Structure formats: structure tokens, C-alpha cells
Amino acid sequence: MTQTPLSPRKPDAREKLLASALRLIRTKGYTATTVDDLCKDAGVTKGAFFHHFRSKDDLAVASARHWSQITSALFAAAPYHLPQDPLDRVLGYLDFRKDLVRGEVAEYTCHVGTMVQDVHLSAPEIRDACHDSIFGHAQTLEADMEAAANDRGITLPGGAASLALHTQAVLQGAFVLAKASGDAEIVRDSIDHLIRYIRQIYQSPHVEGGDMS
Amino acid sequence: MTQTPLSPRKPDAREKLLASALRLIRTKGYTATTVDDLCKDAGVTKGAFFHHFRSKDDLAVASARHWSQITSALFAAAPYHLPQDPLDRVLGYLDFRKDLVRGEVAEYTCHVGTMVQDVHLSAPEIRDACHDSIFGHAQTLEADMEAAANDRGITLPGGAASLALHTQAVLQGAFVLAKASGDAEIVRDSIDHLIRYIRQIYQSPHVEGGDMS
DNA sequence: ATGATAATACCGACTAGTTGGTATGTTGTA
DNA sequence: TACAACATACCAACTAGTCGGTATTATCAT
């Protein structure tokens, strides 16, 4: 009946476990999320878990890569890439990040940012997978930041890569404060500060289009 | 020597356990740090642990308050309070934070920032203790930020409290990226971005036309 | 088509070790 | 003797991971 012609197998349990991993680990943290928790949430058995993953750590690495795929697809399809001016694309990205801050804390915080705190010393493989996810995402901002600087004949303080990483630091840190206070508004406020900083760097006081309402 | 007259004895094990908690939890995370780990590191037995703390969560709350005391003493004694200009005190604080970023990741990252990610939903008491530590520290910056704004006749975008929290967000987020990459330089770079932002806020003579209320 | 063969996907009881926590001491001091 | 400050032995629940087994599907010679 429902048979995908391209993939001969349908590893249903694997996808359900990865989806549960994103939800549970973001809520409880990696160490506090047990294999049984994941199996119960995904509606599969332990046999299925260890059929698809050699260990809990193996699932963590896979979940980090899965997170990268989910998020890169989300951002690639987002409308902030449309403006001609690369600076507007950068500012559009930050507005888009603000729009994503809705609902419960676990719904808008970062899976790999949460996980890497738990395992950055004990599990280097997971840490590296988280690193690749965060830093890979930051790289997608570099080109626009660099192009906007070239358009205006300015040099970015610290370089485009440093500014791109700074945006991720602001987001990750704002998530920490949101977890401490339960208040999502803190995230939006910090992004607003970042938007002002970037506007001032490029010395572009005007606003294109109807954002920031 | 130093004997408190109010307490009949000095609870040596309690202080050793709290010191171990700061070191171990910053390294491994709260959930991954076991009671046995703490006892072994502190050189005490489990009996001593549960004599001084009702539960592991009780120690976590105590460790968050202990962290607040340690850090508030550190910052209160720091030389950045000396300048006459409150803006110089704010910038001196950020330079001081940069100087603290030395050695291993666990040596300069934030105990309560690490812990709150682990427990923000499962243990509200610990979360609140972490919240008080972070937001209380942020409050110590507010007065100088506000005074510096009044001296210059400007209005801070979002208010002094928001700017103070933003500094903490930048620091916490930079710690996350440092854990992911093992590179302390990332923290100093993000603080440099924050210093530029704050300098620009206070240097701009005009009222920012704009976004916030 | 059909049946044999083999590979994958999944099940759930089981285990060896770990977990936070307790019960019952012992020791030093006032 | 009274009490705080420990120490030792222990436990029930939980942990990641194992293992023999089954159901479903793919491959392929006939």
C-alpha cells in the first residue's frame, strides 16, 4: 500500500526515535533522557532502539545531524533570502529568528545547544556533531554579512565569521536566560539588541519593508 | 583560628561538597554528576552528604546560592568599580569578564547557567535559585548603565535592565559555543562585539529613530 | 508465479551495574 | 549525657545494553 518506491525499507522506528529525541532532549536534557523514555515516547521497543542505534550516544550523534537537516531546510525555505540588499537578508534572518520564539521553551530552543552542554567533555563525538550543527548554521550567514560590508566599503570588526558566531552566541545565551526565567520575551529583547548592533555596524538607519512590529 | 561562635563546629564536609559541586557540575552537568561522584571528589562519605543535604536537589539549590556568594564577592572586590565615569565601570566590567576567560572550559563557564539547562522543567526550585543568581548579578550592572545614560542625556533602548540581561545572554551563549568548540577565543570575541555595541549606544548623541516604544 | 533463502525490522524479557536515598551505627566535643 | 558530625552497610528502583526469537520484505533460481 503505502510503499516508497525510492527506499526499499521503511525504518519507521528510527524516524520516530529521532523525532522523540529532539523533543525530549530539548525538554529534559540529554543525560536525564533515558532510552526507555525515548522508546516509550516513540512508541517502539528497546529492541528497535538498539537495532537502529549502537548506543544512546550513537542516537545523540544521529539526532544532532537530524537537527541540522531539519533546521537547514527550515531556514533555506524561509523568505528572508529574497531582498536584494544582503544587509536586509541578515536583518530578515534576525526577524525570522524572533518570529520563531513562540510557545513553550522547549519548542523554540536549540537541540544541539542544549545537548552540547551535557556532553562536551564526556562524549567528543556528540560534541563534534553539535559543533558542526551550530557552526555550520553560522556559516550560512557569513556570505551575506561579508557582501553587505563590501557593498558599503566597510570592514567588519573581527570579520564576518566572528559576527556570525556572535549572533549564535546571543541566541544560545538568550535561550539559557529564557530557561531560567520561563520568559520568552528575553530572547526577543536580546535579538533586538543584536539588531541594533548590526544596524550600527553597517550604519544603515533605514528600515526596508514592514518588519519589527 | 577562624571559628564561628554561632555554630558549635565547622561543617567541613558541607563546604567541601559545595566546592566539589561547583567543579563537577560545571564539568559534567548536573544530571551526569552523581552523589557518589561528589562524595568521592570531596573526600567524604554518603552519610555526610545526606547529613548536610536532604537530597541531591537540595545540594543543587545550595550550590546555586553558594555560587552567588562566591561570584558576588569576586565581582565586588574587582577593580572595575573605581572609575568616576559609570560607563567606564561598565566597560571595565566587560574587560574583567574577558580576563576571567582563561584555562579549561569548566574553569571560566557559569555554574548556574550550566545547571539551569538540565533542570529548568524538572526541578523548579533549582531553576529559581539559578534564576536568582543570574538575574541578581545582572542587576548589579543596571545602576551603572542607567547612570551612564543619564550623564549623557540618552535613553537606553529597551531600558537598563534589558541591556544588563543582554550582557548575560552574550556571556552564557558564548560559553555554549566555547563548549562546542573548545575554543575560549570565541568568548572574548563575543565580549568584544558587546563592548562595541555598548560603546556605540553611549556615543550616539542622537536619539535612535526607531523600533522600540 | 512460486517457493527457498536471506536480510532487515522489530519484539520484550533479561542482566549487570548504577542510582539516589536510608538505617544504623561511631566519634568527638560541650 | 546529649547532640552534631560524620561513617558503613545496605536497598529498591532504575540504567544502558543484550539476547533469542518472530514478522515482514527483498532476491532469485526455477
H/I helix tally of chain A: 10
State the CATH architecture of one domain in chain A.
Answer: Orthogonal Bundle
The quaternary organization reads as homodimer
Count the E strands of chain A: 0
H-E string of chain A: HHHHHHHHHH
What is the average of the pLDDT values of chain A?
91
Low-pLDDT residue spans of chain A: 1-9, 205-213
| Percentage of residues in helical conformation of chain A | over 70%
The dominant shape of chain A is elongated
Considering residues with a beta carbon less than 8 A from a beta carbon on another chain, report the largest interface and each chain's count. Answer: A-B, 55 and 57 residues
Topology-level CATH name of one domain in chain A: Tetracycline Repressor, domain 2
CATH class of one domain in chain A: Mainly Alpha
Quote the beta fraction of chain A: under 5%
Radius of gyration of chain A: 19 Å
First-residue to last-residue Cα separation of chain A? 48 Å
Largest sheet of chain A: none
Structural class of chain A: mainly alpha
Protein name (chains A, B): Transcriptional regulator, TetR family
Pfam family, one (chains A, B): TetR_N
Keywords (chains A, B): DNA-binding, Transcription, Transcription regulation
InterPro entries (chains A, B): DNA-bd_HTH_TetR-type_CS, Homeodomain-like_sf, HTH_TetR, Tet_transcr_reg_TetR-rel_C_sf
